[in-house]
Amino acid sequence: RRALPIYLGQVIIDEEVIATYAGINAIECFGIVGMASVNMKDGFAQLLKRDNVSKGVHIKINDNKIYIDFHIIVVYGVSIATVTENLIQNVKYRVEKFTGMSVEKINIYVEGVRIVD
């Protein structure tokens, strides 16, 4: 949780809220099938449903700076560099506007590729 100072008190934003917001914005980006949940036991990546996107996003907050890790599944045939650059720009802008905090770093882990009809 992170407290934001305001005139009469504080606003507390839970990391889960930021993770959900970032995840929803990520899956709206072109070329992304969805967020992935990785089973560390066997390395298997599972596509998460829209209501569980936060499980594919890890948030760390330090000195009112946000660090985000995304675990994504991309569409087969797209340029991963283009998709990830778009994801970074889009999510950074939206999360900063949403929280009022700076996004310091975004790491993206491509966990799988899927063919989309």
Provide a short characterization of the protein structure:
The radius of gyration is 15 Å and the shape is elongated.
Verbal overview:
With 117 residues, this protein is an alpha+beta fold. Helices cover 28% and strands 44% of the residues. It is built from 2 helices and 7 strands, in the order ββαββββαβ. It has helices at residues 15-27, 80-99; strands at 2-6, 9-13, 32-39, 44-47, 57-62, 65-75, 102-114. The strands form 2 sheets. Strands 3, 4, 5, 6 and 7 form a 5-stranded mixed sheet that branches. The termini are far apart. The mean pLDDT is 88.
Spell out the blueprint of helices and strands.
Blueprint: E1 2-6, E2 9-13, H1 15-27, E3 32-39, E4 44-47, E5 57-62, E6 65-75, H2 80-99, E7 102-114
Parallel strand pairs: 6-7
Antiparallel strand pairs: 1-2, 3-4, 3-6, 5-6
Helix pairs in contact: 1-2
